[in-house]
Specification:
- By secondary structure, the chain is of the alpha+beta class.
- It has 8 helices and 10 strands.
- It has a 4-stranded antiparallel β-sheet. Strands 2-3-4-8 form a 4-stranded antiparallel β-sheet. The chain has a two-stranded antiparallel ribbon with strand order 9-10.
- A hairpin with a 2-residue loop joins strand 9 and strand 10.
- It binds a DNA duplex through helix 5 and helix 6.
DNA sequence: ATATCGACCTGCTAGC
DNA sequence: TGCTAGCAGGTCGATA
């Protein structure tokens, strides 16, 4: 579910609810990917100053340090104004003066982790290697092109690795490469500067569109108040094996790359 | 550095 | 109808 657009849609949903709120309680359910990294009492009374996003992580700036939230594969955040009993897959509650932020995550690949800062402790470990933010105003297309040139791996793997640009997961990697008309198997270093520029444009265009649409609702994504996204209507290749390409009508192919499914049109993407 | 693979955990569905 | 194998949005860590 959650690639950059879904996380950003979630951030926009919770930021106005949490900005300036004070933490009054924590409820931990089944363990998530990592332990919280501090005593729950340490968080009580702390104010949430801002809700930011870095890659697919949400960052809550506190009086002391930051709270990192990752949605993993199946995570979703909900917000409640009054107490509600947690259901089966609700594994974390952040009780605040404004309401309760609740993480629902059936597969538990998600995480809620406290770190002293983005550069220290778990912050450094989880965020330190991340590439550039494709939708921030300082995104440097030339730097992106130069870094692609140095990677001797299939371009789709490079996108998924997050080491050059963050936020592009399996759905959007497929869509972006289709839009830029690049074969997902193409060695990144062999992509022309012109194509690399088209790729950067496609990343920004697809992610922005997906955010505007409220995120992908392939499967089960919902925004904070339960809204569905519309991106599935725009997916051109993802999940469409054997269906006709929207451009040339030839069947979409599905292959495996790094144990993940890749969808593409071998005629349009050359 | 890079590439591959296993691991984490649960739910859903296609196919028999 | 019921069972099973395979697949799913992510990403870390071990291994060559």
């Amino acid at each position: 579910m959650p690639e950059l657009p879904e996380v950003e849609v979630t951030r926009r949903g919770i930021a106005p609810l949490l900005d300036g709120a004070k933490i009054t309680g924590i409820r931990l359910g089944k363990s998530l990917r990592w332990p919280l990294g501090c005593e729950t009492e340490d968080l009580l009374g702390q104010k949430i100053h801002q809700v930011r996003r870095r890659g697919k992580y949400l960052l809550l700036d506190l009086d002391q340090g930051i709270l990192l939230i990752h949605l993993g594969m199946s995570g979703r955040l909900g917000f409640f104004y009054k107490e509600e009993p947690p259901s089966k897959h609700d594994h974390f509650d952040l009780v605040t003066s404004s309401g309760i932020l609740r993480l629902h995550d059936p597969r538990r690949f998600g995480a809620v982790v406290w770190a002293p800062s983005e550069q220290e402790g778990m912050g450094a470990k989880l965020l330190g290697h991340l590439g550039a933010e494709p939708l921030f105003v300082d995104f440097d297309v030339d730097a992106f092109i130069n870094k692609l040139k140095k990677r001797h791996t299939a371009v789709k793997q490079v996108l998924l690795s997050g080491s050059i640009v963050v936020g592009v997961g399996n759905i959007y990697a497929n869509e972006v490469l289709f839009l830029a008309r690049i074969d997902p198997r193409k060695d990144a270093s062999k992509i022309s500067a012109r194509k690399a520029r088209a790729l950067a444009d496609a990343i920004q265009q697809v992610l922005r569109q997906a955010i505007d649409d409220g995120g992908a609702s392939l499967k089960d994504f919902r925004a904070v108040h339960g809204e569905y996204g519309l991106f599935q209507i725009h997916a051109k290749v993802y999940g469409r094996a054997k269906e006709p390409c929207t451009v040339c009508k030839r069947p979409i192919k599905m292959i495996q790359q790094g144990q993940r499914s890749t969808y593409f049109c071998s005629y349009c993407q050359r």
